[in-house]
Amino acid sequence: xxxxxxxxxxxxxxxxxxxxxxxxxxxxxxxxxxxxxxxxxxxxxxxxxxxxxxxxxxxxxxxxxxxxxxxxxxxxxxxxxxxxxxxxxxxxxxxxxxxxxxxxxxxxxxxxxxxxxxxxxxxxxxxxxxxxxxxxxxxxxxxxxxxxxxxxxxxxxxxxxxxxxxxxxxxxxxxxxxxxxxxxxxxxxxxxxxxxxxxxxxxxxxxxxxxxxxxxxxxxxxxxxxxxxxxxxxxxxxxxxxxxxxxxxxxxxxxxxxxxxxxxxxxxxxxxxxxxxxxxxxxxxxxxxxxxxxxxxxxxxxxxxxxxxxxxxxxxxxxxxxxxxxxxxxxxxxxxxxx
Length: 339
Prior knowledge:
alpha+beta; Aminopeptidase; 2 domains; twelve-stranded mixed sheet; 9 helices; 34% helix; globular
């Protein structure tokens, strides 16, 4: 199939709506339990990209119809060798060479920008999980991409969650956390903790399992934290945070966050959970998780489900999540390819 690949014009309503249709129809087919993007959310991502990334948004067009999208996302503060490719082909136009054309185009863009590794991800079916299209893995293999980090998505069904068990786990953990105090906030980090948030955020790629990914720790400082928070606000996203403060130093030494996309009050994303390595062994990870679940659900009563991802080998965090009621849904693979 012959297609024209060109930049997406974010100021052109037809471009935006055509690209959104590809995303919505693909999400509905491939991940039916995911909330499909809305127009407001999709526009906000185009209008407010992450400040530490350079994005090239493109579309594949045939006979005047947008049938696929490609985003090439390139870090600008660290990992300057990387480019992430996000390719989405409308279900009605798959297996006709459109994905191959977009992959080749994405690699060409990455090379032009001086990148030497491309990466991305795809979903897989778990043995007892809902059906997932095996074509994504086959496509990555055909392009020469190598699996680098297996992950698993787990979901908390809030209506089925045993909150009494959360309370019990919390009380059982507290005696091991003497000398620490819980703190909570919404959206932007308090000034007294923002430096600690930057430190913890910058440790994530050091501490979490990264498999064979060719990736380095992010350089996170207060300015980067505040810029990311501003982008979240501009996108209309809401976030809830809990941490543990070391009473001896008044430093934040553990932190977790849950976020909501605009227009989806029933669905949340469990994001970072991290404990400073020098303060591990005090059950701080479990405590901040329970603190933030309470904090979030008190303020977002429409929440129905919360999704999170863990590296398949991250046994410690998986154990905490499953203890709280998160259950495996599907597998995900982070892939990469040297170019």
